[in-house]
Design goal:
The protein is α/β, with parallel strands linked by helices. It is built from 18 helices and 17 strands. One of its GO terms (molecular function) is cobalamin binding. Residues 1-24 are annotated as: Disordered.
């Protein structure tokens, strides 16, 4: 075989006997072929009419993010025409597995730290630590980086004096509080000093673009401040780490981390510097749910996968039981093993940039980077980020209330009979996306709604199940037996409503019902209705008022 430049000559690359020839014309699919297949599915589900053109699938299946960025259902080569595709990960191999530890109880924190390190965690993120002698007892600081948050940096450096520290150790001082004195002390110790924590903005409800723009603004301000005090741009950049939230929207998370590197590279370029962004990704706190917390394992797995694929240098998976109180040993074990499964079992880290070249990811990366840079410019001109975040929160709340942004186990498929795990202390104080529904579940209604069905089981099951699940999302149970019920929900087909609905409602009222709901579109014989797209929060609040 002749080899030139490390590549075999094309004529010598013969396909194996019986293998698929990927260049065979019969294997080629065009965009029009995809449109036809997708249109057939949409027509079957009544989302397209028979006379609608196949090309309308793009309009039907394209969705918009909270930033107004369109995400098409299919990435194509044309998406990248004239676009920048930078932002690729610098990390090679496995990412750092970072465990977060509440260090306010020093003895308990030390126990958790040693268990996590023994279980394969490679760095520690300590919050609220002061007694480092106890918290870090038996921790090998040259092997395990320590990152502080709301800790005493002076006390840590005093404790660590004379010890070898891992270079990824970070004093955790907010970039807004950076001083050249602290920078010099960190340099002398061979560690980082500062953090741009964009996850704090995410926790307030910010969108991906807002999180990115804030981080660029904070990073730029940090550079400007330290360089004015005599530090070089590259020196200052080497001392800071950026923290971002990773959510269960995997493509958005992948693109966000890639866009962040592109944005920071541009800032450094304009500042006359260079270098790579150090990224720490932490699974989103507000995406978690207190109810059916086991689903949080799935959410954090997707988020960790996206963070790894997106190129984060360090990844923290928060325990699934964090919303309930201080995570126990099982919750912490599942959290660290999530990373191990992705790295050691799924081999996600073996590829430097798994999403690189994927049309949809490259396009989304470019869209996020451009939108964040535009917002960064407006922030520099005095734009009100708080107002923009408030608008995002309002829109997210609307989508959750109408269940266009479902939360499994809370707004969808809730289990009123579940027994929640018991944990010590209070749960994570961040306001979760499903907080409004959690508040309803916190105070379940004692009086059930009577579910009155019309027709056969096959005829009423779909709407009866829909109504039952919707009511359960508001802490309302249903009863199928007749009795003295204040609220009745009638479920059946449209044909059954036409024939029997008015009489069924009248009978319910004769039996003592004060409020009649129809599962489906509104009817003149019903007081209220519930169907797809209804504002579930408003509907549930009205129903609870009638029951009480």
């Amino acid at each position: 075989m002749t080899v030139e430049g490390g590549l075999a000559e094309p004529e010598e690359l013969e396909p194996a006997q019986g293998s698929l020839d990927l260049a065979d014309p019969s294997d080629a699919w065009t965009v029009a072929d995809w449109e036809a297949q997708a249109a057939a599915v949409l027509r079957k589900s009544k989302r397209l009419r028979e006379d609608d053109p196949d090309s309308q699938v793009w309009q039907k299946l394209t969705r918009k993010t909270l930033d107004g960025i369109e995400v098409t259902p299919l990435g194509t080569k044309a998406d990248l025409d004239g676009l920048e595709t930078s932002g690729r990960p610098a990390r090679q191999g496995a990412w750092d597995i970072r465990a977060q530890i509440d260090a306010t109880d020093a003895r308990l924190a030390n126990e958790e730290a040693l268990v996590d390190l023994t279980g394969g965690v490679t760095s520690l993120w300590l919050t609220g630590a002061t007694d480092y002698e106890q918290v870090l007892k038996d921790v090998l600081l040259d092997l395990a980086p320590v990152v502080l948050e709301r800790g005493d940096a002076d006390a840590f450096l005093e404790y660590a004096e004379g010890r070898a520290l891992h270079p990824d150790t970070n004093l955790g001082i907010p970039a807004a509080d950076a001083t050249v004195e602290v920078a010099h002390r960190a340099q002398a110790a061979g560690v980082r000093a500062f953090v741009v924590d964009a996850s704090a903005i995410h926790d307030r409800g910010a969108s991906d673009v807002q999180e990115l723009a804030w981080s660029v603004a904070a990073g730029t301000s940090y550079l400007r401040h330290l360089t004015e005090q005599g530090l070089g741009v590259d020196e200052a950049a080497a001392l800071v780490e950026f923290r971002y939230a990773a959510t269960d929207e995997q493509f958005a998370t992948i693109a966000k981390l890639r866009a962040a590197r592109r944005l920071w590279a541009r800032v450094l370029e304009l500042s006359g510097g260079s270098g790579e962004m150090r990224q720490h990704a932490v699974t989103s706190r507000p995406m978690m749910s207190k109810y059916d917390p086991w689903v949080n394992m799935l959410r954090t797995t997707i988020a960790a996968f996206a963070a790894g694929v997106g190129g984060a240098d360090s990844v923290t998976v928060l325990p699934f039981d964090g919303p309930l109180g201080r995570p126990d040993a099982f919750g912490r074990r599942v959290a660290r093993n999530t990373n191990h499964l992705l790295i050691d079992e799924s081999h996600v880290a073996r590829v430097a940039d798994p999403a690189g070249g994927a049309y949809a990811v490259e396009k989304l990366t470019d869209d996020l980077a451009r939108a964040a840079w535009e917002l960064f410019g407006r922030l520099d001109d005095g734009a009100d980020l708080d107002a923009e975040i408030s608008a995002t929160v309002e829109e997210r709340e609307r989508q959750i209330a109408t269940r266009k942004r479902p939360i499994t186990g809370l707004t969808e498929f809730p289990d009123l009979g579940e027994t929640l795990p018991v944990r010590e202390g209070d749960g994570d104080p961040v306001r979760r996306y499903g907080a409004s529904f959690e508040a309803l579940r916190d105070e379940p209604v004692a009086q059930p709604v009577h579910l009155a069905t019309l027709g056969t089981v096959a005829q009423h099951t779909a709407r009866a199940t829909f109504a039952t699940n919707l009511l359960a999302a508001g802490g309302i149970s249903v009863a199928t037996e007749a009795g003295d019920h204040r609220v009745v929900c009638i479920a059946g087909t449209d044909a059954a409503y036409d024939e029997q609905g008015a009489e069924a409602a009248a009978k319910a009222r004769r039996d003592g019902a004060e409020w009649v709901i129809v599962a489906g579109q509104p009817r003149d014989w019903a007081d209220d209705s519930c169907a797809l797209g209804v504002d579930a929060l408003d509907f549930l609040t009205r129903t609870r008022e009638k029951l009480s």
